[in-house]
Amino acid sequence: MPNILYGENGSQDLVKDLTDINYNYDYPEDLDLRPGSTLHIFLKNEILKRARASRSVVEKRFNSWNEIDRVLTTYIPTTQAEKDIKTADSRKPVSIIFPYSYAVLDTLMTYMTMAFFQDPIFRYEGVSPEDTIGAILLEKAIELQCYKMKVPLSLHTMFRDSFAYGIGVTSPGWEVLRGFKNRPKSRIPIIGSILDGIVDRTPQKETLFEGSTLSNVDPYLYLPSPNVAAQDVQKGEYVGWVGKENYLSLLEDEGYDNYSFNAKYTKHVLNKKSIYGDSQSKRTEKFGESKNDFSDDVTTPIDVIWMYIKLVPKDWKIGTSEEPEKWLFGLAADSVIVKAKPLGLNHDMFPIAVAAPEFDGYTTTPISRIETLFGLQGVVDFMFNSHIANVRKAINDMFVVDPYLINTNDLKDPKPGKLIRMRRPAWGRGVEKAIQQLEVNDITRSNIADTSFIIQWMQKIGATDDPMMGSLRQGGPERLTKGEFQGTHTGAVSRLEKLARVISIQAMQDIAYMFASHTQQLMSKDVFVKASGRWQEDLIAEYGGAKKIQVDPYKINIEYDVVHRDGSVPGGNFAAMGVQLFNIMAQHPELNQKIDIYRFFEHVIRDAGCKNASDFKRVETKVMPDEEVAQEVDKGNLTQMEM
Known about the structure:
This protein has about 650 residues and is α+β, with helices and mostly antiparallel strands. It is about 35% helix and about 15% strand. It has 18 helices and 14 strands. Strand 7 and strand 8 (about 335-340) form a beta hairpin. Helix 5 (about 130-150) crosses helix 13 (about 480-520), helix 10 (about 375-395) runs antiparallel to helix 12 and helix 15 runs antiparallel to helix 17.
């Protein structure tokens, strides 16, 4: 069904199509991108054709993902009867989703944050010796960007999506934060004052900060190329997603980007949703009520298909080049193209990174770690809830009574200490045969023990045993031994290290490379970084005792390599072994001669979790007479230390 269009200024008068409206946009490269033009229709159809092909692949996973959402929600009553029970008496238990899959996910997430959220998150090294200092400054600049732009939060979402849905998708970008600063304009004289006046400060809009950002893509709204596997996103012909934007953000973007346009036309489109923008996610549903609905009366949401496409400009009639190029398109409400620009990035990659730790090498949307546990999770839910249902049944007293002998109204009174009266014909005959309670057999008595057995298998499959979850093994005739603990802990950590290393190669390496390339290409303002951390000695040797070092685009224009993490965490498998090796080295002079024992000591304490080992290094000092100090200063050999 075509979109209904509003008239001028949002009036209720309908127009035939958008060609009846003209906002006189100046389009880049003299292209005719006005809605309704031949080129606009061609580009719109090409984008929608690719979105349709991608959606047909992704939507096959929606049913499974909905079950994952339900499992991770954990507390939804499943039937109206159970809702009625809870309404009548809030103390009575109802069916729940036993939150063990959530516990597994939380354990996996905890390990990933420990493995990757170490300063700096992204590490670099120079290709040649002359690139060493530049790579250090590049690493420090990106470390500052990650802090300012809150990149770890986006990485956390990527990890969660990869374990819950099988794919975690992010889009590295470059963002300029703009705001106002007070700048002195003139002085206002004050008659009779000893001051010559006060400064008239006028707020001016400026760039406050710029840096690399990381945006998450909802797997439900992801539009991958259907011909490549999840980890091979860069080999595809296109990739995209549906973004939840708004009219004001699109309009604001036009003021800073010459390749953004047509936002005003979206006012005339009544249905601003995309047919591919319905995520169909169940993650926000609580007690059968959806929180996905929004009010158009107070917000202006617009679905925009953002798509990177590899194309030949001449074939698409948007240029004369016959060489393949990467372009970015934005299609709002499936009707209006609001962005069309050549990507023009030095790394010449799609700005997309995908983490798929359970990938099989061939599938576009692989299964997830939580999905592999779904069958066992269903059994645990059934065993637990059937026991709850049986207990709920047992605690309701069930009696067989003779209504001729018992006053049934007294029997129905739920208050404690009740008085049940016999009817007049039964007076004086006794109460032995007037009422009898039915015997209730708990056939689900062993369900809890069986549930524990199933949970043990979930632990084995999920690589999240009790030590990884922060608890010790319970039960058994023998106490937990040191060897048993270390063995199971080491095995679980090794499996989690494998997942972390896969994510590091798949996504973290690409993100780090694109962050560095964006910084080298797009950075326009100098920044100041701290001369501390793992490169403190090198920075001090290069810049003296400066606490802050200025970084400009020229200093970081170097060749670099990304140093990806191995998946280990501080205090992991070999921390204790490192301490033992250090003790051996300290007691053998021959080893001291061949190994730098202090550098090995720094490695050991860093591996044990100490992040600022260099802060405790002794500073060599030398006392000199004042006259000698003055002479050295005159010669330029000494300088004052900056505080």
